[in-house]
């Protein structure tokens, strides 16, 4: 577990603007720099050999020593001895890979600084780089920091210059960049030209994220002394092609010189006080490059509105958007066991397990409660393994877990649950050593997606009622994606995943054994009833709660939040409203990371709330963001209709047709609201009936529902269907909810 009160961090430094600005962001967020690490190539004479690497910047590494001195921290500089053997997006360990050089370097620093728990990188858009840093950090139990991740590059370079970061261009490799004009130029002097080249018809990334250029930092407010170039750098031309020249600099003579002490900004308060001129503003305008997590929440509703509206405009402009491709799997011909239901033309199987253990007299003691939670999790997983074994399947085909515990999700309970859960569903370096009598033939690339809630009463398979006061129980609903015997299992490569473990401004990091999203493409014949293409991409998302992503804590505010001119209908508790806005933003960003269609491919959504008021606030927030903004409808009484392609019939608002609104007892971190989604491309709006139906349990039975959510009081005592317990359904006293996938 991350020790949040121990904020020392190690910085991965290339010398470029991104890694240095990342350090500044970390200091602004109350982290303390302890050391910098640099991976550099071998020397040829006095200069490092320039290498083409997606992982490391090698140019100007001769100047990194002075950066460490300017920061007044130790430098750990290691040679790059490995090669990029694993060039796929997901990294698999290889003894001679260049990524293992980073592992060895960080291992050394970690041994010298055992109290350090964080490592920063300057990753902005490169999944390739971020995944490898996170892989190494996770193996060393370090929490990655990536505060530049997914920040719009125009905004980022503005912030860098406003923060008085002085960097020069030391390598060019792009159309439009010229050795004489750009090599050695200060970023502040050529940023207008770079911005012009980033506009259509050109396509240069203004931050150089496509490898267009690389930089070296001479000064920033954190440097105690600035770096001066005392003699002209040596220019090396790789390619003299007039259209795409490739050239870089060898920095021949660098020295540190003193600078005015009043220009130093070395504390969190110093960073947050910085104001600089916006380089892109026509009129002189001050810009604050660093904001505290709370300041970032100001005007959150307006920020979210702009973000969704801009993304919708981009999607409409590129209506032929094609999702990233997944490895395709045929629908398995395996006979479906009686304990499983299917959807997606048989591509996905579902089963539900419910187990419980009686409490002892001291069962409410937190330590005992944690122990019982761990036991019941192990029993549930053992039962699942037994069911999978009868179908000749393993847990690597489990792609989503919906966990319902009958205990409040306190730290002790959730920690004990995760300890047992990670042993079966975590990644190899997260699991404790175990007797693996069933060796996997392929290594797992992703953990399953997951949602976890608490409902204080569960119903066992024999009709027994597991009350929270007298027992510890778990309902585990599992979605499987079986694959033919001659293909690897779903989690070992036949999927596309989102598994971001770095703390950032983007969305909450994965600090548990789950992925944010997993996407699968299945091949199967269309049916007359489904009216879908032969190829469908399904994406399953983990539950999201309204955490502040920089701190992984829930927002805490006093008083009401009054919006829309003080309309009484919009008076919510400010903390609740902020949670609801944050969680929709998190979901929007994770959906966008998987497909530019974002909300257009929505198949079904589930919103869990711990009170009716929380669910109503969540519903209003979703309606404003998705129904009104994304689908651009502003009918009266905040309702709108979405046309289904078949015929001219209209269905209800998406809040009615595509979302299940469920009351539960507790949520992780005691959040008020949790969301999870499933998307499908082609769009699920191309079906004849809405995917969510509210009715009595008896009416839903036999209707073809993939899942049924039902309050325990109205659940059948014996049931072969996948019935998931809830406390209640929003605004429905005796109804259940069926999902049709």
Automatic annotation (TrEMBL):
Domain of life of the organism encoding this protein: Eukaryota
One GO molecular-function entry: diphthine-ammonia ligase activity
UniProtKB keywords: ATP-binding, Ligase, Nucleotide-binding
Catalytic reaction annotation: diphthine-[translation elongation factor 2] + NH4(+) + ATP = diphthamide-[translation elongation factor 2] + AMP + diphosphate + H(+)
Residues in Diphthamide synthase domain copies: 10-231
EC number(s) given by UniProt: 6.3.1.14
Keyword Cell cycle belongs to the record: no
GO biological process: protein histidyl modification to diphthamide
Pathway: Protein modification; peptidyl-diphthamide biosynthesis
Entry-linked Pfam families: Diphthami_syn_2
Entry annotated with the keyword Ligase: yes
Similarity annotation: Belongs to the Diphthine--ammonia ligase family.
Protein name: Diphthine--ammonia ligase
Organism (species): Clonorchis sinensis
